[in-house]
Amino acid sequence: MLKQIKYFQAVVRCNSFSEAAEECYISQSAISQQVQALERDLGVTLLKRENRRFSLTPAGEHFYRQSLLLTADFERLCKETAQIAHGDDFTLRIGYLKGYGGTEFQKAVAEFTAKHPDVPVDMKIGNHEDLYELLRTNNVDLVLNDQRRAFSNEYVNTVLTTIDCNIEISARNPIAGMGYVNADDLRRTPCILIASKEQQENEQSYYREIYGITSSVIFAEHLEEARLMVVGGKGYLPIEGGALPAQYAETIVRLPLCRNKTPIHRNYCAFWKTDNSGFYIEEFAEILKAQFDKTE
User: Fold this and answer.
1) Looking at 2-16, 70-84, 97-111, which range is the least confident one?
2) E-assigned strands of the chain?
3) pTM for the full model?
């Protein structure tokens, strides 16, 4: 019933079944059925439906307000229970996508550690597949990662932002004056990807299949190394997130990356296992989401 209550809260909060369904990552018909099932279980009508509009009944208004208090108490109970179980030995283990160029993650870590100075934070960096494997095998609690798979009910999938994809290229390269580039425009210019040796093949396959990149590929271990390769004219770097750092303003140009003249977008998400929710994990996710909201 708790899940049905949360669906009901989403419908009321969004004032729309379709928007609530999108927020909860289920279909509109499914969320409508869940709310109806909740009404049947309670034996009362919560929503008065009129064509495509609805309003809260008096019973619905009461249930909605009290249910917010109920779910807040439940989440607090989960956190307190986890704290008792973990004791003072709890360490928040978080993973960070090494090729992401924004600063939201670092700011979230700074805010969290200032609020909880006694909670150790263990950070790991990696490519998409590295982070997915760490999360799948319970070696991290939460990761900031790009979305490459359909969302799974096994995980909490919080979309942090949807970002236009860009490339960074040497300001001396004539391509820098194009305004935007299609992947096909870059077929004779090497692509610089950030990947460990173990993930080089996966990264190359992903960029070829999803981005349409067919140029030769060279690899860097981290973002700073990749940008120095760009400055040296070795190739271009696909990049998302954040502004170009000031120290590269005169040597690197950032251009929108398109496929058939259509901008390419990518979702960045916070992922954690549904059976590992509560305690500091959800709090860090909220802080991280707030940092992304500030930059939009």
Assistant:
1) 70-84
2) 47-50, 53-56, 92-97, 121-126, 142-146, 155-164, 166-170, 181-182, 191-194, 217-220, 237-239, 252-259, 262-263, 265-273
3) 0.60
